[in-house]
Structure to design on (319 residues):
């Protein structure tokens, strides 16, 4: 394949949605960087604050991966990468999902061990403008700041994520939109310490860890299905996307007796129409195509049917 070969460009409305999403993610990185800095300087010895800070630090990963995939997928196919770079989005989504899963397990372990050891955290005071202030007030103010920008930005990402069928953006939006739970849990932990309930801090961190772990497990299942060439899934569930179901049925109508195989690369769907599933490439053809030593590696030979596809059923709607 020539390096000059490229895929059809995105429709104008999709390009506009992508530009909007890129701008939002740049804003997100800026706000998150400031939040991480603020939380670092005020978290003290609080387990809930530490947990919230780590979650905010982890939140930098999805927008970074989205910006990377949005840049890489525009690169044209080449001799070394004949299918282009659409799968960078799939790889980025998998990385973000794995990070969520690992972090959820880590936070769960930290919270449980703190409760088992019955560690009693303390919140000291700090001198500010000549006044002695309980650090808990600053912690709660920092938590409030860590919630508001992500929640607003998360809601702004929802529509572009749906328009672009982008799982990284959708995951990022869900994480941001749910940050108010983390903030409230953290504030409850700080208040609990102030009232003398030593376990409130670790319990709040435990609640946060369950939220992170749940998202990590769900997203890992979807990401693995995508990397294993599974049928296209929904943005937020491990279920086959309705568009994929409709596309499969339409192609089966156009090519009766054939099997339709669908897979997802990033935000795009690839469809392959082949003979029945029990049809295999004969050994002679394998040897002719792959050579005697490497013939076993040839499992499928597909032919693009762009022209004949349009003529197969002229009156049928094209999806």
């Amino acid at each position: 394949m020539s390096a000059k070969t490229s895929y059809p460009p995105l429709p104008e409305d999709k390009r506009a949605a992508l530009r909007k999403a890129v701008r939002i993610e740049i804003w997100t990185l800026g706000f998150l960087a400031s939040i991480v800095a603020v939380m670092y300087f005020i978290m003290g010895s609080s387990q809930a604050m530490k947990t919230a800070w780590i979650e905010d630090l982890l939140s930098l990963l999805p927008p970074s991966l989205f910006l990377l995939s949005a840049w890489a997928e525009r690169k044209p196919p080449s001799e070394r990468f004949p299918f282009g770079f659409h799968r960078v989005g799939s790889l980025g989504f998998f990385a973000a999902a794995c990070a969520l899963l690992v972090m959820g397990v880590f936070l769960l372990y930290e919270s449980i061990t703190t409760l088992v050891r019955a560690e009693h955290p303390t919140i000291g005071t700090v001198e500010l403008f000549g006044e002695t202030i309980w650090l808990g007030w600053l912690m709660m103010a920092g938590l409030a700041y860590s919630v508001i920008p992500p929640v607003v930005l998360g809601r702004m990402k929802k529509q572009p994520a749906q328009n672009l069928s982008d799982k990284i953006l959708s995951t990022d939006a869900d994480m941001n939109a749910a940050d108010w739970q983390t903030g409230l849990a953290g504030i409850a932990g700080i208040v609990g310490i102030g009232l003398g309930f030593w376990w409130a801090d670790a319990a709040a961190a435990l609640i946060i860890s369950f939220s992170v772990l749940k998202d990590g497990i769900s997203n890992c299942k979807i990401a693995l299905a995508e990397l294993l060439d599974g049928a296209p899934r929904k943005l937020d569930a491990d279920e086959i996307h309705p568009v994929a179901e409709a596309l499969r049925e339409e192609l089966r109508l156009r090519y009766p007796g054939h099997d339709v195989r669908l897979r997802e690369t990033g935000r795009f769907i690839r469809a392959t129409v082949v003979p029945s599933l029990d049809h295999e490439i004969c050994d002679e053809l394998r040897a002719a195509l792959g050579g005697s030593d490497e013939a076993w590696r040839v499992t499928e030979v597909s032919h693009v049917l762009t022209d004949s596809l349009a003529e197969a059923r002229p009156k049928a709607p094209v999806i």
About this structure: The chain has two domains: 12-227, 242-312. Strands lie at 125-128, 131-134, 259-265, 268-274. The radius of gyration is 25 Å. The longest helix spans residues 12-42.
